[in-house]
Amino acid sequence: MATLNTTILGIEFENPFLLASAPPTASVKSIDKAFQAGWGGAVLKTITPDNLEMTEASPRYATIKEQGRVLCLQNIELLSHESVQYWIDGIKYLKEKHPTKVIIASIMAPVEREEWQTLVKTLNETPIDAYELNFSCPHGMPERNIGMAIGTSAEISILITSWVKAVATKPVFVKLTPNVTDITWIGKAVERAGADGFVAINTVQSFMGFNLDTLEPVLNIDGYSTYGGLSGKAVKPIGLKCVAQLRQNSNLPILGIGGISGWDDAVQYILSGSDAVQICTEVMINGYEIINGLKSGLLNYMETKGFNNISELKNIGIQKITTHEKLNKKYHLYPTIDKEKCVSCGKCAKICLESEYNALNFIDNCLSLNKEFCAGCSLCSHVCPKGAIKMCC
Ligand SMILES: Cc1cc2nc3c(=O)[nH]c(=O)nc-3n(C[C@H](O)[C@H](O)[C@H](O)COP(=O)(O)O)c2cc1C
Predict the structure, then answer these.
(1) Closest to 180 measured CA to CA, from 261, 233, 246
(2) Which of 126, 190, 218, 281 could form a disulfide linkage to 231, CB 3.0–4.6 angstroms apart?
(3) Sorting pLDDT into bands at 50, 70 and 90, what band is 326?
């Protein structure tokens, strides 16, 4: 029998699905509801010292949709507006009511030893399971030299990680930003400074553009906009890349996050090296109840494939990711055309010609391949609107 139970850094998770630090974890009442729905744990909306003032903008969201479904969400939301005392009381309440659920405190403070250590010493007294250092919020905070301003500097990341590690009585995860050239650079730095695990990724810095009628920004705050954080389905390949790169360079636990909407996305993250996963945007769009499908889907997949636990699944994909230099250049696939499905629209032949190859041609209204000219690039199979082209040996 397969199990979703998993243990990371001595912390027992009843399932590997955690709510990420975000609106779904902004209040004790919401987290209580999520735990009742079946989530394995929650990362609290980032807690800051009470004297760090924050004012939200309105509106704070923009989306790109396809056929009514949200492909990605951009936000410019800041951190928790609740006091440290609110969270102290809330953590105690939640742990008493849900002792088997994992609670991780996400924290951020100005770059001063006293500020970070006071916050950690205070939260040490609560029954949290771990810390998550938010070095990665891409909007609002970097202007104040925190958030992503920390996580894009190896020196400052090392400094704060070592301050926190000097006083923390619980494991310390560092939440990394994808907005760097090489995430492993900061990953290695915080590992050297004593971090116990990674969380990847926070949102991807982005700009949603302009309304072409009004010439105002799409995310329009009284005529102006700013750069925000992109999340949801569209960022999954970026998150997977970051997790895989971290895994190829470290054995520390990783909580994978970014664009997970179904159990299959979670499997992708686990194969890429994640020990467990976090989810934000999909919960914001479809509610806490998605946990039922996530758990049953993952369990069913593991049982069908013969995996007993998450550890057996973890990292399997990593050996399959290599350098471009090492890829077998003798491997060559060719398009095969399903004549039943082909509607002779000519799209494949057109893009093939415009890509310089001219390997696909219509002869007597029938698509045919000239193997000699075919580069095996596969673009034709991706643009075919009917799925009539498959790449084969
Ligand atoms: C509205 C919103 C608020 C967020 N607030 C926080 C936050 O306070 N702290 C944090 O570490 N990440 C925050 N995030 C980032 C998410 O935790 C997560 O890293 C990101 O959205 C990618 O995951 P997803 O694609 O599942 O949404 C926020 C994301 C969104 C959309």
Answers:
(1) 246
(2) 281
(3) very high
Mean pLDDT for the chain overall: 97
Confidence of residue 387 (pLDDT cuts 50, 70, 90): very high
Residues 21 and 140 in one domain: yes
Does residue 16 fall inside a structural domain? yes
**For residue 17, pLDDT beyond 90:** yes
> Percent of the chain at pLDDT above 70?
100
Confirm whether 325 is domain-assigned: no
C-alpha 151/C-alpha 157 separation (Å) is: 6
If asked whether residues 262 and 338 sit together in one domain, one would say: no
* Position 42 confidence tier, pLDDT thresholds 50, 70, 90: very high
Nearest-CA residue for atom 19 of ligand 1: 202
Q: Where are the alpha helices (DSSP H) in the chain?
A: 28-37, 84-97, 113-124, 148-151, 154-167, 183-192, 236-249, 263-271, 281-286, 290-305, 310-313, 347-354, 379-383
Do 37 and 146 belong to one domain? yes
Kindly state whether residue 328 falls inside one of the protein's structural domains: no
Q: Which of 18, 19, 21 to mutate to test the pocket of ligand 1 (most atoms within 8 A of CB)?
A: 21
Helices 28-37 and 290-305 meet at what angle, rounded to 10? 40
Which residues form the domain of 20?
6-320
Q: Which atom, in ligand 1's list, is nearest to the CA of 233?
A: 25
Mean local confidence (pLDDT), 56-79: 96
- Which atom of ligand 1 lies nearest, measured to the CA of 60? 1
The atom of ligand 1 lying closest to the CA of 175 is: 11
Q: 265, 288, 320: which is the final residue of a domain?
A: 320
Do 106 and 64 reside in the same domain of the chain? yes
Domain boundary among 291, 320, 349: 320
What is the count of structural domains for the chain?
2
31: burial class by Cβ within 10 Å (0-12, 13-18, 19+)?
buried
Q: Whose CA is nearest to atom 6 of ligand 1?
A: 22
Q: Which residue owns the Cα nearest ligand 1 atom 10?
A: 21
- Could you tell me if 378 and 355 are in contact, meaning their C-beta atoms sit under 8 angstroms apart? no
Pocket (CB within 6 angstroms of ligand 1): 20-23, 45-46, 73, 75, 77, 79, 106, 134, 137, 175, 202-203, 231-232, 235, 257-260, 279-282
Distance of CA 116 from the midpoint of ligand 1 (Å): 21
Residue positions annotated with a catalytic role: 137
Q: Are residues 70 and 204 in the same domain?
A: yes
Ligand 1: which residue has its CA nearest to atom 4? 22
**Confidence band of 362 (pLDDT split at 50, 70, 90):** confident
